[in-house]
Amino acid sequence: xxxxxxxxxxxxxxxxxxxxxxxxxxxxxxxxxxxxxxxxxxxxxxxxxxxxxxxxxxxxxxxxxxxxxxxxxxxxxxxxxxxxxxxxxxxxxxxxxxxxxxxxxxxxxxxxxxxxxxxxxxxxxxxxxxxxxxxxxxxxxxxxxxxxxxxxxxxxxxxxxxxxxxxxxxxxxxxxxxxxxxxxxxxxxxxxxxxxxxxxxxxxxxxxxxxxxxxxxxxxxxxxxxxxxxxxxxxxxxxxxxxxxxxxxxxxxxxxxxxxxxxxxxxxxxxxxxxxxxxxxxxxxxxxxxxxxxxxxxxxxxxxxxxxxxxxxxxxxxxxxxxxxxxxxxxxxxxxxxxxxxxxxxxxxxxxxxxxxxxxxxxxxxxxxxxxxxxxxxxxxxxxxxxxxxxxxxxxxxxxxxxxxxxxxxxxxxxxxxxxxxxxxxxxxxxxxxxxxxxxxxxxxxxxxxxxxxxxxxxxxxxxxxxxxxxxxxxxxxxxxxxxxxxxxxxxxxxxxxxxxxxxxxxxxx
Amino acid sequence: xxxxxxxxxxxxxxxxxxxxxxxxxxxxxxxxxxxxxxxxxxxxxxxxxxxxxxxxxxxxxxxxxxxxxxxxxxxxxxxxxxxxxxxxxxxxxxxxxxxxxxxxxxxxxxxxxxxxxxxxxxxxxxxxxxxxxxxxxxxxxxxxxxxxxxxxxxxxxxxxxxxxxxxxxxxxxxxx
Lengths: 510, 176
What we know:
The complex is a heterodimer.
Chain A: E1 10-14, H1 24-28, E2 34-37, E3 42-45, H2 55-59, E4 65-69, H3 82-94, E5 99-100, E6 115-117, E7 138-140, E8 149-151, E9 160-162, E10 170-172, E11 176-178, H4 188-201, E12 205-206, E13 223-227, H5 236-239, E14 244-248, E15 259-261, H6 268-274, E16 282-284, H7 294-307, E17 314-319, H8 324-333, E18 338-342, E19 351-352, H9 353-358, H10 363-376, E20 384-388, H11 394-403, E21 407-410, H12 412-417, H13 440-443, H14 448-472, E22 488-490, H15 495-501, E23 504-505
Chain B: E1 2-4, H1 9-17, H2 29-42, H3 51-54, H4 59-63, H5 67-79, E2 89-94, E3 98-103, E4 112-116, E5 119-123, H6 126-132, E6 138-140, E7 148-152, E8 167-168
Antiparallel strand pairs in B: 1-2, 2-3, 3-7, 4-5, 4-6, 7-8
């Protein structure tokens, strides 16, 4: 037997009294953890292969399986943690860059958990969203500097008509959208669930950089088309198949890094959608090779606006990095109608682990500093801000808006709603939940109708919770919360952190 | 004059700060003056339309408007969303040229208006109007978001000799 330096991360406990050897676990595991021995009518499990996705545990009909995290597999050392040892063993085995999926899971401060929201008492009444109107409709797009009017005899009552032509706007029934996940990184069933849910709820999903499958054309009205450095599947048709275009410069999980969809995943369908030969690697370069400055970005923004007849908002997605505030200012000046900022903890289908866990800044700080900077420069109205990069709950969303975002992007939360258990193995293409895979045996596990229903439920419950919190704060329109940092208080934060966030500490009144 | 508390103060404050107004007094009332100055004086939005910004109609009402009105009110709300005053308020804004009163769109604070000849009275309650003018020609309770506008008629202002000014009340708010 070969020397194995690494140890399993999980313990698989099988209650032999409950196990009926039905082999559901064997069939469900794409990592071949469980194996049936017909001679002994026994199932053996190799915990070293287990990724902790809990698929077998969830589907075991008799509840015989328990997957537990193994806490003390290496000798305790506060400097050399188990993950350091595990990673070094893996690298010494393979000589490669370690890949991972989903977002940064390191214990950096999660500022959402250090911010508290406000409510009304006595002096201003709270509003009951079940009895009173509670408005969370949101618009994404460039706003004019001012409005001009003309008098009109024909218009009823007002005698005034709008003269200014408004820039194209996205109209959202809730300030939550699904952020970019390409067909390729996730299955078509997953894409379809996102698209259908966005369409039924009156919000938007984002194609990601993989082009657009023709089955999704019917959801065009609720689609944001992404243009990334690989330009996969991009042509005039594609650009006009959505309601907005997003230029992807960066992603929170891997700022400064391109993408790589391995050839094995480029099936016939994906090759058609991405417009690349079947079986070839789909490589997204780290930079756009036609963007080396803000001026270049302005050219691409204008080219895309021209290609879409100036009828759609064109935005730019960037990862939250140290200089995000001046970068955002440049992007607005380049003509972007919205900026999507993706924070440190944003997810990915595949990224070098070292990048995911060490590069970028948390979205909370990025949104606060970008909003502040754009206001200082008097250009905040020229572009909407969409915050993403681990919005885990409706309270994260409402705090993001109070810090200055117009809307939030969710993706990891959407995947979790569809069954994802955050095993972080998206890059292997072996997703047991049928989400981040193209294997037909696995993809059929996600029924798009059920996926759609679960996503709709998620949007609905978060929207209701947002209304509850708004009403509690005595506000009946989401726009009165935007940038309303008076409704936020920090808890356990130092002066510098409070200053960057632009909020007071809990206990301080105004 | 302001009766109430503004729950949208933080948003309104940040909105006007983008135009160079700095809120320095520790009171939410301050921001109303700046909003009025910015919108009415600097951006020259007709005083008859300002209620569509400060106490904007609900989206469900906007959806039901005739097309032109809808386009107008929607644009105002999209552009001036951060100028919406949310929370309970009745306000009176005035200078030598006009008097303007408004309360929040779901009428969480009272507002009463009355007229007697050239006089326009506005108050949070009827009793205080009756105190100074026991029998006004007309007295009414404006709806939430429905402004009371009195503009000094420049042609006759100051010509009456008794120091009072004639108020022209046919400057009705834009109805949508």
